[in-house]
Design goal:
With 149 residues, this protein is an alpha+beta fold. The protein has 3 helices and 8 strands, in the order βαβββαβαβββ.
Length: 149
């Protein structure tokens, strides 16, 4: 079965077409699907490494990677997203593992903090994260801070 192809780019390396498609994917999931009005374009894309997963030439997976101090005290992963039509392939695990490997390679650490939507707690635990906070609301969605050492 064909797999995702991953590529990492800095903001200034993204083509306008790539930027358009990754912002479209983020809006489809985080704003429309989750019915959450929030400012997705938050000024942090400039600092992030962008992990892009493509399948058959189309961006279907994505996450942002931050060095320690750019978002949390530790390195971090955010905006983890798989296009709805591809979630049955369990590529979320591949995406998170690629993000962990990229952080280790680019930032030299495996200590990673995330702000995870609460319903994904078990998903992130399978990928080596553990809860380190109580539940809190972020954009009116229950979240929990998680850490991978």
């Amino acid at each position: 079965m064909p797999q995702l192809q991953f590529e990492i780019k800095r903001f200034n390396e993204l083509s306008t077409t790539e930027l358009y498609h990754l912002l479209q994917l983020r809006a489809e999931v985080f704003i429309v699907e989750q019915n959450c009005v929030y400012q997705d374009i938050d000024g942090k894309d400039y600092k992030a490494l962008h992990l892009i997963g493509t399948f058959d030439g189309k961006i279907v997976a994505y996450s942002r990677l931050f060095n320690a101090g750019d978002y949390f005290d530790n390195a971090s992963i955010g905006r983890v997203v798989i296009a709805a039509a591809f979630r049955d392939r369990k590529w979320g695990h591949d995406l998170v593992q690629a993000a962990i490997s990229a952080i280790e390679h680019h930032f030299g650490t495996t200590r990673i903090t995330i702000s995870a939507q609460l319903y994904l707690k078990k998903f992130y635990e399978v990928n080596g994260f553990e809860a380190v906070s109580d539940t809190y609301l972020e954009d009116n969605i229950p979240h929990i801070e998680m850490l991978k050492n």
